[in-house]
Design goal:
The chain is an alpha/beta fold and about 400 residues long. The chain is built from 11 helices and 20 strands. The chain is about 35% helix and about 25% strand. Strands 4, 5, 6, 7, 14, 15, 16, 17 and 18 form a 9-stranded mixed beta sheet that branches. The chain has a 6-stranded mixed beta sheet with strand order 9-2-1-13-20-19.
């Protein structure tokens, strides 16, 4: 039986472990943390076939430059003299065009719809993670934003997704949980959501049942290569032999890849969230508050708010109060009855989303190392795309045809 070693115990790594174990492989997962607080835990929990337009898109650079001078803005690139940042920025600029977006949209749609199907399979087995299909409301307050959001809705509709275009009155008929101060919205009926922490617990329990070994608090320090293959993984807890390696370490993937002489262009996009427990008065439908790029997700009796994308580095562990204030201001602008206050620092979660300059995830066999599969760069869509990514990883390693076309997800 082939032994597959997965580096990274976030949702991408664990879903890869699940589908590989289902294929009958002996699987071991390595993670440097205790696996209770990565990007997979504090995110908005949205499963979003609607998100068919990558981060690298026309207009994003001009908008990003404007936002850089506003400390409360939803998108920010931390300026610093850094070669990785400069290379990433140049590649982002090259990808921010209509041709790239046109090729990216069907690829992201197919990956997302496969993921949603697989989440439905999980939900049929177990209801503990509160899978719900209420869609996603894109809410807007200005005509300018409304035109952009409705245009994206038309593109999604052309690609076969279910979309409703709502007036101010229709938004309030649909969102009965609280008052919304908006001029309209777009309802993506194909979207769904879950409670991320509960799903992570469910998948860990499944892996335990399938005898997948999880080596937590274990740092991968180096590798032994033989005949263009990874033969051994050297960790701070000993050396492990392996037949296949899956690199799924999120924003830390480039550091580990360098030990294999591989260059992966990924920068971490820091995001924040906070969760209010047992809220009777709350929005009932997951929403994105478009002007502030804030995600709002009801999760059973709780509600989670999340936002901002700070392109930074993984040592940047300070909570930026201005960015957090920007999220709170947006919530209160859109939902005037909620009267949300600034969360305490200890109640604020942050995580690093791995962002590629193309805005596309990487799900690919390495060209040089025959037994290495790289899966990273899912940015804000790690949770949304995790089951489909995991399934494709198992297909790559088993040398089976991929469930969807992976041409756009190459290294």
């Amino acid at each position: 039986m082939k032994k597959v070693s997965i580096i990274g115990g976030g949702i991408i790594g664990l879903c890869s472990a699940y589908y590989l174990a289902k294929e009958g492989y002996e699987v071991v997962v390595f993670d440097k943390s205790d696996m209770n607080d990565g990007c997979s835990y504090g995110n908005a929990g949205m499963i979003v076939p609607s998100h068919i337009i990558p981060l690298a898109q026309p207009g994003m650079i001009a908008q990003g430059i404007k936002w850089m001078f506003d400390s409360h803005s939803p998108f920010y690139v931390k300026p610093r003299l850094n070669l990785d940042l400069m290379k990433w920025g140049l590649q982002f600029y090259k990808h921010a065009n209509y041709k790239h977006v046109e090729k990216a949209m069907p690829a992201l749609r197919d990956l997302s719809l496969l993921s949603k199907e697989l989440y439905q399979d999980f939900a049929r087995q177990n209801s503990s993670f509160f899978y719900e299909e209420k869609g996603l409301l894109m809410l807007f307050k200005t005509d300018k934003t409304g035109i952009e959001i409705e245009h994206e809705g038309i593109l999604a509709e052309r690609l076969g997704l279910q979309v409703d275009f709502l007036s101010k009155a229709e938004v309030s008929q649909l969102e009965k949980g609280t008052v919304t101060d908006v001029i309209g919205g777009v309802h993506y009926k194909s979207d769904a959501h879950i409670y991320p922490q509960k799903f992570m617990q469910f998948i860990k329990d499944e892996l335990n049942r399938m005898n997948v070994k999880i080596e937590q608090n274990t740092s991968v320090n180096d590798f032994v290569l033989k005949n263009n293959k990874v033969a051994e993984i050297i960790t701070d807890k000993g050396t492990f032999t392996t037949d296949e390696v899956v690199l799924a370490a999120g924003s830390w993937s480039p550091y580990i890849a360098r030990k294999l002489n591989i260059n992966i262009s990924i920068l971490p996009g820091k995001g924040y969230s906070f969760t209010l427990k047992d809220q009777e008065h709350k929005p009932t439908i997951p929403s994105i508050l478009c002007e502030g790029k804030v995600a709002v997700t009801p999760m059973n009796t709780d509600i989670r708010f999340g936002g901002t994308m700070e392109i930074t580095h993984t040592n940047d562990i300070k909570i930026n109060q201005n960015r957090l204030q920007g999220i709170v201001n947006s919530i209160n602008d859109f939902y005037p009855e909620l009267k949300i206050e600034m969360p305490k620092e200890e109640d604020t979660w942050f995580g690093f989303r791995p962002c590629t300059p193309s805005g596309m995830p990487i799900i690919a066999r390495d060209k040089k190392l025959k037994n290495l599969t790289v899966v990273t760069g899912h940015a804000m869509m790690g949770l949304s795309l995790a089951p489909a990514t995991g399934k494709i990883v198992s297909e790559i390693i088993a040398e089976k045809p991929a469930s969807v076309n992976t041409q756009m997800f190459q290294l």
